[in-house]
Amino acid sequence: MTEDDRGAHGASSAVQTAPPAVSALIEPRPMRADAARNHEKILQAAEEIFALDGVMVPIDIVAERAGVGIGTLYRHFPTKEALYEAIVMTRLTSLLATADECVKNPNAQEGLCSFLREFAHQSSEKKDLFDALGQAGIDIKARFSDTFEVLMARVDSLRQRAVDEGAVRADVGTKDILNLVMGSCHAAGPSGIDDTSLQRLVDIILAGIETRS
Amino acid sequence: MTEDDRGAHGASSAVQTAPPAVSALIEPRPMRADAARNHEKILQAAEEIFALDGVMVPIDIVAERAGVGIGTLYRHFPTKEALYEAIVMTRLTSLLATADECVKNPNAQEGLCSFLREFAHQSSEKKDLFDALGQAGIDIKARFSDTFEVLMARVDSLRQRAVDEGAVRADVGTKDILNLVMGSCHAAGPSGIDDTSLQRLVDIILAGIETRS
DNA sequence: ATTTATCCGGAACCGTAGTTCCGATTCAAT
DNA sequence: ATTGAATCGGAACTACGGTTCCGGATAAAT
Question: B56 to chain A: which residues are within 8 Å by CB?
């Protein structure tokens, strides 16, 4: 039961012209047009709502906002956790892209700096998504260990470059930095924190990890 | 209904010898011995459990740990929120005491420093109590505004002294500092963070708010 | 146009956690 | 020892949110 759309995420918009009999064994079916549309609508609605009201919102609300029934939502994401996973994945990927961008910056310090700013900015926009999930008993680091590792490595290279350049103290770990920045994002209570204040906090952190003269 | 033990918290252990008829209008009744005992047991159990498993634990568990029935618990704290309030109050008071202690330190920088360390230490011990409450939709700053203000003022005097002494930058606010330190405490995920790492984070923050040479 | 596999919608179900209620129990005053 | 009010205990009630189920609608293949 309910095994029909398992693993259909990567379908994209590739046209299927191969003989059905054989390819059916590999790729079950291309997913109906409306289904694909709904899948996207749900994902988007969830992202918006979670960012706005936190992950505690009842799932009905997400369905309502997406303009679909609850049943439909469950057809696409058999569990609320599955929804979380999809969104966190999006988020991690996006961060990874940001990190990649920042690595290109020839100035190591600037690179690290702008990554952290962007990281903080995203985190505060998406109302403490990561943290709220932790609260709800989902261990992100465990569930997405591979993607997480990659991101971590990327950030670490940002940090290492800055250290090599002599701009950042060698005795602060990547985790320390990320913990500090993440922490800043939700410390200001449920009301969130305005971007200006947040950037001020990031500045302090940056000052804190700089090499002293 | 259920108005019999309203406001009986401050009863303490003062002996009542005044004529009952008159004092009854002022102080309803001294609270039965076992009741007082239970009140204390519940408070203590709640503090322990909340610190250990977070505020999401069902209230039955608290009652069980305190060795009383659910009904009893509700007799003393008519709502789960009421329990929260009692505990947060304890916590705030304790922090206030710490702050008072630190103000006595003749060295302003050391004073601020040791307060922040202690603050961080307590926060990590008591498993993100404040934050978890925020998550649960309780706005601490609003509900305890008066006590909170006092604490805030105290910390601000710690900061101001350090600024006057030329040890801390003048452009960082008290809120910034507290946000950073609070943030550090729970950023490390549900598993918490060991005290050594936490102190390292506090060190970075302290470095970040120092005046540059 | 017909047919059928897929998908949609939302009523109903179930488990969980907060809260209420009231008979049984216990304190403490006489 | 007796008595009555205060307190206790926990079964039962309620609200809420996640999940299941299935009759009806729809895309797309013939």
Answer: 135
Take residue A108 and report the two structure tokens written for it.
Answer: 């190591």
Q: Do the Cβ atoms of B125 and B131 come closer than 8 Å? A: no
Segment B26-65, tens digit of pLDDT: 666 789 999 999 999 999 999 999 999 889 999 999 999 9
- Chain A residues within 8 A (CB-CB) of chain B? 54, 56, 131-132, 134-135, 137, 139-141, 172, 175-176, 178-180, 182-191, 193, 197, 200-201, 203-209, 212-213
Where, residue-wise, is CATH 1.10.10.60 in chain B? 30-78
Q: Rounded to a whole number, what is the distance in Å from the CA of B141 to chain A's nearest CA?
A: 9
Please, what is the angle between helix B80-103 and helix B59-66, to 10°? 70
Query: Does the pLDDT at position B9 exceed 50?
Result: no
Residue A187 neighbours by CB under 8 Å, 6+ apart: A193, B131, B178, B179, B180, B182, B183
Protein-proximal positions, strand D, CB < 7 A:
6-12, 16-22, 26-28
Assign domain A81-209 to its CATH superfamily: Tetracycline Repressor, domain 2 (1.10.357.10)
Residue B69 pLDDT > 70: yes
> What topology is assigned to A12-78 in CATH?
Arc Repressor Mutant, subunit A (1.10.10)
* Band of pLDDT at residue A18, cut at 50, 70 and 90: very low
> pLDDT of A55-72, one tens digit each?
999 999 999 999 999 999
Which of B50, B45, B205 minimizes the C-alpha distance to B132?
B50
Of the candidate CATH numbers 1.10.10.60, 3.40.50.300, 1.20.58.340, 3.40.50.620, the domain formed by B30-78 belongs to 1.10.10.60
